[in-house]
Amino acid sequence: MAREILGVDRPEVLEEAVRLGAIDRPSTLKEVREADLVVLAAPISRIRELLRKLSPTRALITDVASTKTGIVREAEQRGLRFVGGHPMAGSQLSGVTNARPDLFRGARYFLTPTEHTDPEAYREVSHFVQRLGAIPTAVAPEKHDLLMATLSHLPHLMAAALLKVASDISPEALSFAGPAFRDLTRVGSSNPSLWADILAENAPALGEALGAFAGAMAQLGSEIQDRKSMERRFQEAREAYEALGGILVDKRGESTELAVPVENRPGVLAEVTTLLGSNSINILDLYVRHSNTERAALVLTLNSEDARKAQSLLHAAGFGAEPL
Ligand SMILES: NC(=O)c1ccc[n+]([C@@H]2O[C@H](COP(=O)([O-])OP(=O)(O)OC[C@H]3O[C@@H](n4cnc5c(N)ncnc54)[C@H](O)[C@@H]3O)[C@@H](O)[C@H]2O)c1
Ligand SMILES: O=C(O)C(=O)C[C@]1(C(=O)O)C=C[C@@H](O)C=C1
């Protein structure tokens, strides 16, 4: 039987989703109660409301919300066939126009089963996640929320705080900011109502994370004139940074990181990406390693066969390109 993807949202969102090919046709909550799989991708407070509106149903339901404990509890209280989910992918952008088919490729995707989760339901959702190109990772809902408090929610609060501190200096202070400030504050432009929802939902765990952060800042503050201990702190920070998980590339296809040193000039990123794209080389992940404002290295993650091809194409075009 042919698969059909239905969407439920405001009419203008559904119209755009059909135009982009994200859904086959608009639908209603009543109709999706009969679906094989329902993915709830609304703000957290709306997801709780949707769980209530969908009950009772035998459909397998999952969600993508950034916090898990409250939603999983609500679904279980309603006796729904539910497996909580949370993709560690996305951006500060929102709305269907920013949807991308490759958004989840290589990303970690948390699933939060509990002792009440039907193993068959878990297998089905896990299979769905793998079909999106993501890597399912099981974790208990409470542990998930504790981890996210530090790894996602605290950085969003920090971005808001940094932007406020700089804006308070003087009206033009922000216009003088360099790459470090920009890197640290990107998520400060995230959707305000979505983030108000996420932060309120995870307030207890976030309180702990904020306390730990305030303690760490106070400690650093007390040591800033002690060069030895500052050096040790930055050495520790550097080692922790090296251990950061980035995009998870599917281990079935071996991958290689290629560093491409470039000058900071208009169009340089487009030159590299167009060269690779026009030779059918897919960039699995990309980040910029800054050294100063004149030069930087583009670090490209490619599958190993593509990396060899990319290296010779880049050399022929006058770029350096060395595996890391
Ligand atoms: N943006 C990210 O980076 C990211 C990453 C992982 C998880 N999430 C989670 O994904 C969820 C959605 O976030 P987003 O960034 O995609 O937001 P978004 O604003 O892009 O999309 C949310 C959509 O939900 C719709 N909606 C709101 N109430 C609804 C209802 N009652 N019924 C049907 N549709 C409704 C909105 O009209 C909108 O189209 C949130 O729970 C968020 O925590 C976001
Ligand atoms: O990259 C970003 O802009 C994000 O905010 C993505 C991000 C995060 O890493 O914190 C934000 C919220 C989601 O729940 C998952 C991922």
From TrEMBL:
UniProt keyword list: Amino-acid biosynthesis, Aromatic amino acid biosynthesis, NAD, Oxidoreductase, Tyrosine biosynthesis
One MF term in the entry's GO annotations: NAD+ binding
All residue ranges annotated as the ACT domain in the record: 257-324
EC class: oxidoreductase
Enzyme Commission number, as recorded: 1.3.1.12
Pathway where this protein functions: Amino-acid biosynthesis; L-tyrosine biosynthesis; (4-hydroxyphenyl)pyruvate from prephenate (NAD(+) route): step 1/1
Domain Prephenate/arogenate dehydrogenase: residue ranges: 1-255
GO biological process: tyrosine biosynthetic process
Reactions it catalyzes: prephenate + NAD(+) = 3-(4-hydroxyphenyl)pyruvate + CO2 + NADH
Pfam family, one: PDH_C
Presence of the UniProt keyword Amino-acid biosynthesis in the record: yes
PANTHER family: PREPHENATE DEHYDROGENASE, PREPHENATE DEHYDROGENASE [NADP(+)]
Family designation: Belongs to the prephenate/arogenate dehydrogenase family.
Protein name: Prephenate dehydrogenase
Organism encoding this protein: Rubrobacter xylanophilus
Organism ancestry: Bacteria, Bacillati, Actinomycetota, Rubrobacteria, Rubrobacterales
